[in-house]
């Protein structure tokens, strides 16, 4: 699992409604990557709406914010339109990036085991180092906490 102080693994992923995003190409801007389980579920929708509501403040602080899940770019597009989201969403349909960040984990629900994305967020500084990592994120107040960390860089 990637944690604070480690180099953020580089990647290139497709974005809904835009060009592919390469993490290293975004330097020296700070980057927030929030990994979430699935488009259009209650917690993921609440989280995406919270980050979207703060996008102007993240941009004013010079930061770029991206949500990442396993869903397709087509599904991301529908999700963004349905909830009027402004946060760009990246598709890791092969789970390669999720695995490299350590967020593709075994889960259990009603006694059934399966693999899925553990809600996690990474703040990456201008040098490509993880300045802060949040694992097993609880949605309420999280986007505000991340914004405060961006401002503290």
UniProtKB/TrEMBL annotation:
Q: What does this protein do?
A: Thiol-specific peroxidase that catalyzes the reduction of hydrogen peroxide and organic hydroperoxides to water and alcohols, respectively. Plays a role in cell protection against oxidative stress by detoxifying peroxides and as sensor of hydrogen peroxide-mediated signaling events.
Q: Which PANTHER family match?
A: AHPC_TSA FAMILY PROTEIN, THIOREDOXIN-DEPENDENT PEROXIDE REDUCTASE
Domain (Thioredoxin) spans: 2-153
What family does the Swiss-Prot or TrEMBL record give for this protein?
Belongs to the peroxiredoxin family. BCP/PrxQ subfamily.
InterPro entries cross-referenced by the UniProt entry = AhpC/TSA, Peroxiredoxin_AhpC-typ, Peroxiredoxin_BCP/PrxQ, Thioredoxin-like_sf, Thioredoxin_domain
Key words, A-Z: Antioxidant, Disulfide bond, Oxidoreductase, Peroxidase, Redox-active center
* Example of a GO biological process term: cell redox homeostasis
Q: Which GO terms describe its cellular component?
A: cytoplasm
* Pfam families, per database record: AhpC-TSA
Residue positions of the active site = 44
Q: Which reaction does it catalyse?
A: a hydroperoxide + [thioredoxin]-dithiol = an alcohol + [thioredoxin]-disulfide + H2O
Q: What class of enzyme is it?
A: oxidoreductase
Subunit record text: Monomer.
Record Gene3D superfamilies: Glutaredoxin
Can you name this protein?
A: thioredoxin-dependent peroxiredoxin
